[in-house]
Automatic annotation (TrEMBL):
Organism placement in taxonomy: Eukaryota, Metazoa, Chordata, Craniata, Vertebrata
Keyword Zinc-finger: no
Coiled coil: none
InterPro entries: PMP-22/EMP/MP20-like, PMP22/EMP/MP20/Claudin, PMP22_EMP_MP20
Subcellular location, record wording: Membrane
Spans traversing the lipid bilayer: 6-28, 67-90, 97-118, 138-158
GN (gene name): Emp1
Alphabetical UniProt keywords: Glycoprotein, Membrane, Transmembrane, Transmembrane helix
The family this protein is said to belong to: Belongs to the PMP-22/EMP/MP20 family.
Tree of life domain: Eukaryota
Signal sequence residues: none
Assigned GO CC terms: plasma membrane
Name this polypeptide is given: Epithelial membrane protein 1
Organism of origin: Hemiprocne comata
Amino acid sequence: MLVLLAGIFVVHIATVIMLFVSTISNVWMVGSSTFGAASSGLWLMCNNTCVQLSVSSADEASLKAVQAFMILSIIFSVIALVAFIVQLFTLEKGKRFYITGAIMLVCWMCILIGVSIYTARFTGKIPMSTNTHHGYCFILAWICFCFSFIIGILYLVLRKK
């Protein structure tokens, strides 16, 4: 049981770190431009230098929603990690980690909503770029989506022994 708890804890910390990286880094979309490799993220667009991401007024609300949901997913993931540590030391024997699991599933929903909006609205959209494809941050966000779901379910069924 101790090995299972340690494994879940390590995967949870890895998920938090990957969420930070995928939200902060600007490699959600990658393409080729006349200036070299171009990348676009949630905050900046980078060629040789990084500039504020310019989006049309129709897509601005969608970008703000993606930014908000990714930040919320980080917050809920950290809260779930703290709740797990608190419950680990205060929960009675035989009780389940319901609060931690519920918070982690809220994190899962935030990731799902944020990445789905990005997929629907911004896939392949880098101005003056050709040959665009998804970058590693986009892939990390989907990996965090899977990990947060698995961790949330494991917390719900896990008993403290």
